[in-house]
Write a structure and sequence with these properties.
The protein has a two-stranded antiparallel ribbon. It is mostly helical and 96 residues long.
Length: 96
């Protein structure tokens, strides 16, 4: 299906490293363009604030659940917080 949509580098549905990654050693993700320019908004609307889910960040969202290079998480762990990273972020969110 993806190949039928044209060359990888110009496929509007693909995100990630598209150039120089013919054997997919770097991540490539498929997001159908029919989801619109902000697919995270659809997910946020679908979960409607249900606390069992961590919503993806909207462009204006102050919450960051990305564990890679997350200064808030780094500081919390340095300050003694322990546990699953998602749970530390959840607890910190309840305090603010």
């Amino acid at each position: 299906m993806v190949r039928e949509q044209g060359p990888m580098a110009s496929n509007p549905n693909l995100r990630g490293q598209l150039i120089g990654n013919e054997i997919f050693l770097r991540p490539v993700f498929y997001l159908d363009e029919r989801l619109g320019p902000e697919p995270a908004d659809l997910v946020c609307d679908a979960i409607a604030g249900d606390p069992r889910f961590f919503p993806p960040p909207r462009s204006t969202a102050p919450v960051n659940y990305n564990y890679n290079d997350n200064k808030v998480l780094e500081d919390a762990i340095s300050g003694g917080e322990r546990g699953a990273f998602w749970d530390i972020l959840r607890r910190l969110g309840k305090r603010s």
